[in-house]
Design a protein that fits this description.
- The complex is a heterodimer of chains A (411) and B (85).
- Chain A is mainly α and 411 residues long.
- Chain A has 3 domains: 6-166, no CATH class; 176-256, no CATH class; 268-410, no CATH class.
- Chain A has helices spanning 6-18, 24-43, 47-69, 73-90, 114-129, 138-145, 159-166, 176-210, 213-218, 221-256, 274-277, 283-304, 309-327, 333-369, 371-389, 396-410.
- In chain A, 35% of the residues are buried.
- Chain B is mainly alpha-helical and 85 residues long.
- Helix content of chain B is 55%, strand content 0%.
- In chain B, helix 1 (5-16) crosses helix 2 (37-51).
- Chain B is globular.
- The N and C termini of chain B lie close together (11 Å).
- Classes of the chains: A mainly alpha (411), B mainly alpha (85).
- Chains A and B meet through helix 12 and helix 14 of A and helix 2 and helix 3 of B.
Chain lengths: 411, 85
């Protein structure tokens, strides 16, 4: 079920109007749970999907109970290996398909929301093992994992943030002004998502144009450049409108029911480098990668080899962002996407280290504060991000043909 | 409870390469030049080594969050050193 559909928005508006007239926390929790369950019925039709979802979610709860009693990195690691293997199979990742018989890949299991379930589960289990989450209850765990406002595509909420609101179930928006702003944001989201459809239609049209050699060879340079620019910048614009519109709807919708979801965007195309970009675009994913992938990896490496910290940061960044890219989809184009992001963040870190070495930390601060540097950095980052997004559509052969067609015509 | 400030200040001076740095409880990450995500991790590694403690992923993530400052970091370290002593 799309969050911009009438099936989602109308019940949400009705519920938002009456939710806090329900008497007490328990009644609100029951209604919220019922909504989560109802939204799952829209997402999953086949019985095998329900079984897979049940095993995926409940095994996480069982493991959390085990880790709460016996915090063990070994047990957690073993469980995560199995969990991630199950994830790769369920999502039918191309890279592992040759490893298993063809019959394995024909099962009819829907996997909507699975990636986000995985992120939430890893965070929750690590935090339980490290005693950052205590007294976990099945009811709050299930509602956290199946929260309809983050189930399909995030944002990736932390359990502590969810529990803080779930345990009281009181209004989050304290005055009429806040409530009004939430409704406006919801409607802005409802406009942004359909608007993005127009952008993607133009994008598809221009890609198709580049795939016809006859049309490319007969076109002028300027016309070719404009068409390529529509592809190059079209996808980032589409993605921003589509995803931030979705986030506007779910964040404001959740807020109307007293649940605080994390913000996912902060003017991402004004980022001044690729590290900055990941704190502005899909922020909850960027912070998750930082906290549960990059930090443990770098910390372990730098603790073991303290003299080589400056060098070890590069492979850690690279691995973290390649994995982040691979997570975006099950096809090989996302490996390229991830590798490019890994290269991008590594170059940024290398450049920063170079300036710190030559001018010190104060010198770096002064350098970053210079307006021409800032403008150039933003332009470079925007173009690099746009370049990486050429590899978002799954058909890489088609992408290379588009790039080849453009270069061939321009030279 | 012993005062850990001098030792912590020494760690900060070493990690940030600022020999004159004076820590105050109300200071935040914004008050110290070059305190980015990478430096947070380097700082946490150095503090772990100095005070023989371990930080959780969520604690490292929250060290620069709103409302956090040197005072709250000192409280966190003291809580951990007390638990482990």
């Amino acid at each position: 079920m799309s969050v911009v559909s009438l099936e989602f928005v109308l019940p949400l508006l009705v519920l938002a109007a009456v939710f806090f007239y329900l008497p007490g926390k328990t009644a609100r929790q029951i209604v919220f749970s019922a909504c989560n369950l109802a939204s799952l019925f829209y997402c999953f039709g086949h019985i095998s999907s329900w079984i897979a979802l049940g095993i995926f979610v409940l095994s996480g709860y069982a493991m959390a109970l085990v880790l709460a009693r016996k915090p063990s990195a070994g047990i957690l690691t073993a469980y995560l290996v199995v969990l991630i293997a199950a994830f790769l199979v369920l999502k039918k990742y191309v890279i592992i398909q040759p490893l298993l018989p063809a019959s394995v890949w024909t099962y009819p299991i829907e996997t909507m929301g699975l990636s986000y379930l995985l992120f939430r589960q890893i965070h929750l289990l690590v935090d339980v093992m490290q005693e950052q989450i205590t007294g976990l209850k099945l009811c709050s765990y299930l509602n956290y994992q199946l929260n309809l406002f983050g189930f399909q595509s995030g944002p990736i909420q932390r359990y502590q943030e969810f529990q803080e609101r779930w345990s009281i179930m009181r209004p989050l928006l304290m005055d009429r002004h806040d409530v009004k702003r939430a409704y406006i944001r919801l409607f802005v989201g409802l406009i942004k998502v359909p608007a993005s459809t127009y952008i993607i239609q133009e994008y598809v049209k221009q890609r198709a144009w580049f795939l016809q050699p006859a049309s490319v060879t007969s076109a002028g340079h300027v016309a070719t450049l404009i068409r390529f620019a529509e592809i190059f910048y079209g996808y980032p614009v589409y993605l921003y409108f589509n995803f931030s519109g979705y986030c506007d709807v779910v964040i404001s919708g959740a807020a109307l029911l007293g649940i605080k979801m994390p913000e996912n965007f902060d003017r991402p195309y004004l980022s001044r480098n690729m590290i900055d970009y990941w704190t502005r675009f899909h922020r909850s994913l960027g912070f998750w990668i930082r906290d549960y992938l990059f930090t443990p990896m770098y910390k372990a490496a730098a603790t073991r080899w303290p003299q080589r910290g400056n060098l070890l940061v590069f492979p850690c960044y690279f691995v973290a962002f390649v994995l982040a890219g691979v997570w975006h989809g099950s096809t090989s184009n996302f490996v390229v996407f991830g590798v490019l992001h890994g290269i991008g963040v590594s170059i940024v870190k290398g450049w920063e280290n170079f300036i710190v070495k030559r001018r010190g930390r104060k010198g770096l601060k002064e350098y970053l504060a210079r307006q021409p540097v800032r403008i150039l950095a933003i332009a470079l980052t925007l173009n690099f991000v746009s370049l990486t997004m050429l590899f978002f559509p799954p058909d890489m052969n088609e992408t290379f043909r588009v790039i080849h067609g453009f270069i061939h015509r321009m030279i | 409870m012993s005062d850990i400030r001098p030792d912590l200040q020494e760690v900060f001076r070493h990690v940030f390469g600022e020999g004159e740095l004076i820590l105050r409880d109300e200071m935040t990450a914004d008050d110290i030049d070059g305190w980015d995500s990478m430096m947070t991790i380097n700082l946490m590694i150095a503090i772990e080594k100095k005070f023989r403690i371990k930080f959780a992923a969520a604690e490292i993530a929250g060290i620069k969050a709103d409302g956090q400052n040197i005072g709250t970091l000192i409280q966190l370290i003291q809580k951990k050193t007390n638990r482990q002593s």
